[in-house]
Each structure stands twice: as C-alpha cells, then as structure tokens.
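Example 3.2
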Amino acid sequence: MNQAYLYDAIRTPFGKLGGALSGHRPDDLAAHVVREIVARAPQLDPETIDESVFGNANGAGEENRNVARMATLLAGLPTSLPGTTMNRLCGSSLDASIAAARQVATGDADLVLVGGVESMSRAPWVLPKTERPFPMNNLELANTTLGWRLVNPAMPKEWTVSLGEATEQLREKYQINREDQDRFAAASHQLAAAAWDAGKYGNLVVSVPPASKRGTELTRDETVRPDSTPETLGGLRTVFRPAETGTVTAGNASPMNDGASAAFIGSERGGQLLGKDPIARIVSNGAFALDPQYFGFAPVDAANKALAKAGLTWSDIAAVELNEAFAAQSLACVRAWDIDEAIVNAWGGAIAIGHPLGASGLRILGTLARRLQESGERYGVAAICIGVGQGLAVVIENVNATA
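Structure, written as tokens:
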C-alpha cells in the first residue's frame, strides 16, 4: 500500500448566513478554492491530477449536478479531470479526504484534488411533487438549509427531533451544564480571534472578492466575536426548550455559514508533480454510527477506532480538531476521551469560525496539519459529528515532527 500525504490545504473565510459570501453561488466558491490551490503549485501540470472529490451536504440548489465536476470546469481545469461529489452531511469533505487517501493507498491515483463547499444562505426551499395531478390542497415548501426535511413517516419520532433538541437530550445523558457550555463557547471565540491576530490562518485562508461592485472582499471569518465571555453568552435565551429545562442557545451552538475548502492529497510521486513537500501523512480513519438523536457523541468511537487502526492511544495525540456543532456535544466527546481540553481546537472552533456543512471536515483537517507543523508535534486527530447519528475521524502524522 502506498502512503497518502496531505500536501496543501486552504479554505475561504467562512461567511455568516446572509453575509458577505451570500452573493456567491456555491459552485463559484468551490471553483475559487480550486483556482487558488492550483495557483499555489506553479510546477503542477493540471493534466496530471487524477481525480477531484468534493464534499457537499445539500445538493438541492446551485451546487447540484456534481459540484466537484462543476468546480473544476468553472476553474478552467482540463475537461479530462474526473470529479465526484460525496454526501455524508457534516462529514462530507472529511469523507472526501478519506476517499482520496484510499485511492492513493491502493495505487488508483497519485494526486487527488479534494474539496468541500456549502452555501447555507442560498440553500433553496423545495416543493415536493404531488401524488396526483392538479391537487386542490395547499402545498408546503421545505427549507433545505439544515436538518431533517421531507421526513419519511416510517422513521421513529425520537430519531427525527431537531439537532438542537437532540443536543439537549445528549447533554442530559452526559450531565453537561449550561455554564460549561457557555465557557467552552466563549473560549472558541477568544481562541479564534487570537489565532487570527497572530497570523496563524495566513497560510490557510484565501480571501474572496466581492460578488458585485457593491460588495466587499471577505478576508476573515465573519462570525468570530472576540468580546464573547461566559457572562455575555449566559444572558442569551434558550432556543429549543424553555429556560427551565433548556441550555442550548445561539451562543453555544455553531452558526449557519457559507464557505469552501480544498486540499491536495497524493503519493510521493504526487508531491513531485506538485513540487511540494508533504505537510502530513494520512495514518488512519474511523467511522461510527449510533441512534440518530445522539449524533453528537458519534466522534468518540470514530476517533477511538481510528487510533486503534493506527496502533496509537490518546497519550500519543498532541492536537485535536473537533468540529464544534454544539458546545454540549463537544464537551461530551472531550470528556469521554479523557484528554486535556487545551489540545482541542487551540485556534478556535466552529462555534466561532462557523460550520458550512460540506466544507467543515476539510477545514479541521487542514487546521490540524498546520497546528502540528507549527508545534513540531507528531500526531493529531480530526473528528466530526454528523446528523442522523454518525461520526468520522482521521489520524494524521506530522512528517517533520521534532517533538
């Protein structure tokens, strides 16, 4: 089996719902990161890229018809480059990375262009077709932005609760209180702001020009609030339950966002084609599934499986990037792993940075690789929870580790 390496990873700044990126089609955002990452490898002949694999969770709007293929065509890459789009909801682009690493490991590819994209601002409303022509009853539009829609009535009701209600059930099960959630969320904003100010995202984030003459260039994540504190977040109202029984608020949950990410994963020969040295080696991966309402806890066993495949334990892990869908589920995972919270999302997490579903998995993988590169430490874990009760994780190794 060939070794699979991560050679480069970038993303756009993540825009807020209805914000600076809402004027951009998702396929255009995907094309933007494709152009940018190819431009960072001037030695590369695009004809030598074997495959493109993108993650996308929606697929119901302007990103339809296989956004991986659309992105490379819009970016001006050769029409001979194949493309496929994967949908594992929030884990889609991490899944795309896993698929690319498998292609490299088996010798099917030397160089794969990986990406992920989501525009939650532009996700459409959909109108289901009627079972008979010319119905006289009213029809209801379904919002495809987030969560369950057009639910099959055969699904048990406990599985199809909202993501927020599911998180309330999870935090009850694992006894996560409101105060700890708000503390964790405030830290996410403060760490993200500090990382931006220190220039840590300089090599990871590529700006996006305005969509129109009246727009502005987006250079920084739009939902980071540096002034967040546990006290200010503690004053927000609960969203999914009354204050007497609820703890989940807009402040301790990830926002809805727009954004795109891209990476190159390849063999040693792929690095020669790129003219780049690897950042990290893809060591192993793990997937896990459980009852849908406990989706937030699925990263626990996904990461444990990935570590077991790698022959590692949590004592070997120096850095963790865990996508923060909600503070409550993040805390449940960190406590189940029994690891130091300080090694988790040291440059901020999704509560601050945002969670454009299809782009998030690759965001955490790229950030993890750059964190290890900066620290000189060896092993890290990227993990993400996925709606409908799944989790994914990837273990990587810093190929130039000094610690």
